[in-house]
Amino acid sequence: MKKIQSVRGMPDVLPGSSARWQWLETRAKAILAGWGYREIRLPVLEHTGLFARSVGESTDIVAKEMYTFTDRSGDSVTLRPEGTAGCVRACEEHGLLYNQTQRLWYAGPMFRYERPQKGRYRQFEQIGVECFGFEGPDIDAELIIMTAELWRTLGVADAVTLELNTLGSPEARAAYREALVEWLTPRREELDADSQRRLLQNPLRIFDSKVAKTQEIVADAPSFMDYLDAGSAAHFDGLKGLLDAAGVRYVVNPRIVRGLDYYTRTVFEWTTDRLGAQGTVCAGGRYDGLVAQLGGRTTPAVGFAMGIERVLLLADEVGALPDHIDREVDVYLLSLDDADLAAALSLSRSLRAEVPGLRLQMHCGGGKPKTRLKRADASGAEVALILGESEVAAGTIAVKALRAGGDQRTLTREALLEELRALVAVRTEGRDGK
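^ thats the sequence. predicted structure below, dont judge the formating
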């Protein structure tokens, strides 16, 4: 029979690689908690209308990329292509927005039917952050400064650039849209096929085109800044001033429009030149009209999402991943004979209790001493702890280095505990603890 394989573009994260994900997620969650953000867990399946109303029916996401199907009740449902709409839905449904402010985050898979390539998958993981009830540019600045702190923590700060823009009010954007269409219409035949379609549906997305000829054309297009309303201009100036005061460097890029219809005012992207075409590792902005658009009261809101796969690719590219990050076992404990198995089990329990954070794997499955030592080496552990008849009688433990020289020593229990605590400390507080 033909083997069943994973769905194209939906990769498995295997043991070894998963340690890298945990490294990133642990640090991101610690920073979010440190800034007072709370976790919300959202379903991956939503009613299709949620995304049609929020993301926009004319966007590529809704028009071409969503995984949508009819369930047994006859309802059209969709695997979430992004997290903001679901977060707004949950907050409104459970009364979290009325006369309240919220700082929330979530993590999990998103789904888009795109052409799989390095850094772009059909199932991909995001960490998203959403804030509700804050009108001023201070919360925009907080989100950006918080992500800058995350980049420093992950060791990729020198490899990313912050790009800022403002999309103004809906009225200002409508006026600019009209001017842009008028300017591009005589040049329509020179645009690529996707941009010709977008000219009628979502002309601002033409700025996202990667086709060189189209990029040359829109480079001379009217500037949105000439249509920006006074309130949005003041908001943008306030944001830039706060970032300047915090020492966060940025580049104003008036061509950033984002691929979702709900954005207003601030939009931003953290980009890198280290990953080829997939250069955006984190992006977001304001969506002050989305809550009302989905049936709630008018509520100012801002957020961002970062792609875990891309951030990990970047960390690997710049050498920021900790040494031995793929090592998931610190020590491997084995008895040389099954007669000493009970003593080994007892020792494993006490070591885990007395050395917090110790990752100890116990040998199971029997075998000759040589086979057991091969299993120890294959585990990836730094050291093997060996119990034989003489060690059990003397109350000592043989310690064999598996990665550095292969020397073997016999230690007392107290000396072993001291070495194991030092081993865990190096992993959690040294370079491994970035």
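The chain has 15 helices and 16 strands.
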